[in-house]
Task: structure prediction
Amino acid sequence: MAALKPPSGAPLSTLAYSAIITERSATGRQSADLTRARPKFDVRKLSFWYGKSQALFDISLTIPERSVMALIGPSGCGKSTLLRMIAGLENVTRGEIAIGARIVNSVPPKERDIAMVFQNYALYPHMTVQDNMAFSLRLAKAPKSVIDARVGRAAEILGLTQLLRRYPRQLSGGQRQRVAMGRAIVRDPQVFLFDEPLSNLDAKLRVQMRGEIKDLHQRLQTTTIYVTHDQIEAMTMADKIVVMNSGNVEQTGAPLELYDRPANLFVAGFIGSPAMNLIKGRIEDGAFRGEGGITLPLPDGAGAVGRPVIYGIRPEHFQIRADGLPATVHVVEPTGSETQVMAHLGGMPIMCAFRERITAGPGETIRIAPAPGTAHLFDLATGQRLSG
Result:
């Protein structure tokens, strides 16, 4: 293989990974075939060590065929390490990775039939858009007719047809990301891997590209694993979300399942923006008695009287009611679609989000109460969900 030049703005390592993954046989399929089998993907008791430090702990996941699974969690939680192991860029310390019925632990990256889209595009600055997209096919010595057909189809899908003769320096950030996606599409892989592909884009462009990636999956129906730290990306794009923390899986489920029934305090605080309010207290006399003397209604199945618990209520589930508890307004943040209010309830800081326009200002009192059936309870000692 000819020596490769590092793309503008991308570390050499990213380019090397891209070359390793893309140099594979690409002949035989003229274009993406929606009737082609899209196998499920299994990770079984996967563990990984960096030297003497364990980074992943017995991870087991099943990604159904043609679905999108998002790996989400804070920096250092292990999501990108897991993706790199799936790609074959890190060796498996223990466990199995299977694409369909095939165990791929010892299979080189270029033979796994996957395509990866990186955070920083990894485009060759001296190549046109067309040449960047065709690069892997040329490495594989695919016929010119196959290359032209696949690049043309990918360009049409991504709206790049008029840009094929341009160079990366002549493109916007969103256009560069489309080229990176096109380079993956032309290979018609069994699995797409996305490693935080939108994190370098501004807020407006992220929203646009989110929709484009989702539309792309609806067209191609390729099994996809998507790594992000942005919960909005995960909630809007994925069929299933895996929440990770310190190398462990905290919860796996559909987006609204994680929002409605977080399994523990970590998921409750991580999913949702603004974050869920978490209030310490006890169950007494059929109600929740919190710090500062506040009393809040219990969800069904609250458990034993006197038990120390954490009461969870999302900001958007507070209502302004005449019979509610008095809360002192601290900061009002109107966003247009809603008004976010930082307040103090029983001396504790809380966040509320109201659809109504709020006229109260700092220092004034509003009366609030949880909407019926929206509270959550967690065990104070273990952090695990109790009810609600």
